[in-house]
Amino acid sequence: MPKAKGKSRRQKYSYNVNRKRLYRSARRRAAPRIACSHIRHAWDPTKSMAQNLAEMGLSEDPNKAVPIPKKLGMEVESNRWQQGKKVARKPYVVNEMEYEASFPEKKSNTLSRDLIDYVRYMIENHGENYKEMARDEKNYYQDTPKQIKRKINVYKNFYPEEYKEFIALLKQEKMDMQ
């Protein structure tokens, strides 16, 4: 049976390939980056994953860490797991992770500056009249009165203190004009 046409030829060396970069990128792909910085800094590449996690006081298998007790003989099983506990050599990793997890989660969702300016402009010029807002020339996206009302409510929910200050300022300005 005949060979494929290209296979019988000698392989040519490609001079325009950076071998160092190729090797580095292959190594990076082979060993994925650990997302958690605490684990990444304590990781020992010469040891296996199970050994590394055991040293840090973490478990590789959640089923072994917190076993599901059977209905009969629950006390016997719980004692067996208590005796087989290993001492963590790097307990600071777990302590740092627990400390970081104790902080409340930051509220990261905010409104765009354009939307805030739009809502403030509409309230400033039209008050609570949503039909008038819908006919305003600054209503570029041709929002309906209900859509504008929804945007204003979103602004109220995201920035309640700022909204109250804004309304108080508007009332003060109206009082000054009269």
Protein model, in words:
This protein has 178 residues and is an all-alpha fold. The protein contains ten helices and no strands. Helix 7 crosses helix 9 (145-158).
Runs with pLDDT <50, length 5+?
none
Q: What's the SSE pattern?
A: HHHHHHHHHH
Q: What is the distance, rounded to the nearest whole angstrom, between the alpha carbons of the first and last residues?
A: 102 Å
Proportion in β-strands: under 5%
Helix content: 55-70%
The assigned structural class equals mainly alpha
The description of the largest β-sheet is:
none
Count of helices?
Answer: 10
Number of folding domains?
A: 2
According to DSSP, the number of beta strands is 0
Rg to the nearest angstrom?
A: 32 Å
Average pLDDT for all residues: 86
Globally, the shape reads flat
